[in-house]
Amino acid sequence: MGFNVAIDGPAGAGKSTIAKLVAKEKGYIYVDTGAMYRAIALYLIRKGVGTEDNEGFEKYCSEANVSIEYDNGTQIVLLNGENVNGLIRTQEVGNMASASSTNGKVRAQLLELQRKLARENDVVMDGRDIGTNILPNAECKIYLTASSRVRAERRYLEFKEKGTDCDLDTIEKEIIERDERDMNREIAPLKQAEDAVFLDTSDMTIEEVKDKIIEIIDNCQSK
């Protein structure tokens, strides 16, 4: 049995960045569940499915075979055998992932792969419902968040570094709308697990957040 670390939180909270750093330092496997949903979302976009098209989600999601491989410690997300790491971090894909992840058939398709990885390995897994739904028995749970403005500023800088034209106020508006959607969806909504440690990173550096989470994990392991 592996030791499981579940990191949940809203969009733009820095979950993936922090989870990767923590997993590397602890020697655990990092499982980016968001990337898996984004891979399915990319497939749905390619099929011309809209964000409101539940029938389209169910019709095409089973055609999307999503798997994870590791190359020199780096996670590679494969969509029907294609490495899609460089294609799944756009705003369009993120919005589709948020919409399609509310669909029960889409979620069921990825659930067992995620749990299998956790059963067999020491993992750090991040997402919206890891501690409440995917890994409810995880030994260590953390709810990572920040103000909507801080999260928007982080996304804004990411887009600017990639040369993508964007507007800070628009990004914050989309983040707030996504929070509302994620927290109120019928299936596995975003919420803090009762036994999760709450961590607001609005005024913390990446290094400070990483060190704090490792401290939390070490405390969990010593119990």
Notes on the structure:
The protein is of the alpha/beta class. The protein folds into two domains: 1-28 and 122-223, Rossmann fold; 33-120, P-loop containing nucleotide triphosphate hydrolases (Rossmann fold, 3-Layer(aba) Sandwich). It has nine helices and eight strands. It has helices spanning 15-26, 33-46, 54-60, 91-100, 104-120, 130-134, 148-161, 168-184, 206-222; strands at 4-8, 29-32, 66-71, 74-79, 82-83, 123-127, 140-145, 197-200. It has a five-stranded parallel beta sheet, with helices on both faces. It has a three-stranded antiparallel beta sheet with strand order 3-4-5. Helix 2 runs antiparallel to helix 5 and helix 7 packs across helix 8. The protein is globular. The protein starts with a strand and ends with a helix. The model has no long low-confidence stretch (mean pLDDT 91).
Keywords:
223 residues, 8 strands, globular, five-stranded parallel beta sheet, alpha/beta, three-stranded antiparallel beta sheet, 9 helices, 2 domains, Rossmann fold
Topology:
Elements: E1 4-8, H1 15-26, E2 29-32, H2 33-46, H3 54-60, E3 66-71, E4 74-79, E5 82-83, H4 91-100, H5 104-120, E6 123-127, H6 130-134, E7 140-145, H7 148-161, H8 168-184, E8 197-200, H9 206-222
Parallel strand pairs: 1-6, 1-7, 2-6, 7-8
Antiparallel strand pairs: 3-4, 4-5
Helix pairs in contact: 1-9, 2-4, 2-5, 7-8
